[in-house]
Prior knowledge:
Elements (H helix, E strand, L loop, with lengths): L3 E9 L5 H11 L3 E13 L2 E7 L2 H12 L6 E4 L5 H13 L5 E3 L16 H9 L5 E2 L3 H8 L7 H11 L7 E4 L7 E7 L5 E7 L9 H14 L4 H17 L21
Amino acid sequence: MTPIALTIAGSDSGGGAGIQADLKTFAANGVYGTSVLTALTAQNTRGVSAIHDVPLVFVAAQIEAVFSDFDVAAVKIGMLSRAETIRVVAAELNRRQARHIVLDPVMVATSGDRLLADDAVAALRGDLMPLADIVTPNLHEAAALTGKPPARSEAEMEAQGRDLFAFGPRAVLIKGGHGTSDEAVDLLIDSRGEVTRFSAKRIATNNTHGTGCTLSSAIAANLAKGRPLIDAVRAAKDYVTQAIAAADQLEVGHGHGPLNHFYKLA
């Protein structure tokens, strides 16, 4: 049976992040992708110029349409923009007992533009995180969720990851891609409290737009195919590393360019 994954996220008109990156990632990892749009962004490699939130009733209608027809094996959640949308998505997923929920707490775009309203952070922590099989914050998102400064060491990353368990996720992946060391280190803390370290050589490139979206959707794709969590994260990390390494092969835009999601086809 064809594995199916669902992305619930915003649209990136520039094609590098959001729904567009998620569907590319699903396809590149051998999974059929479905989607629920939560917001539209006027966006390119240079930044976000406008955001239009999808009406709540239509967000719910999209979720109903997907789950009433498809056997969704994993769900990736990205940009939700506002507290009201978070609550609707949480209620709909809870009602359907959705499997393998990967929550990417998208707060700020690569360009620095805010994608989540300040009052939505509490809803993210209280309504969605308890449903998540894994939450995947970067250093700045983990800091915002825990109320602490961004981690400067792996010990601080682990400590903040453990703090996030207070909000109910079953696993936490703290991403170190925004760090400054020669290695890009991610730490996975599972439900047993065990830590698994994933490391890759940091790649010198300006083309990293959509990295977080791509990693979380790659994890969801691998979970949809039945891989255990650690294996799914490892495969996703390898995929993203290769997509970043091949990013400079794409000559698109004039700012932070996208990853090369289909590097295997080049």
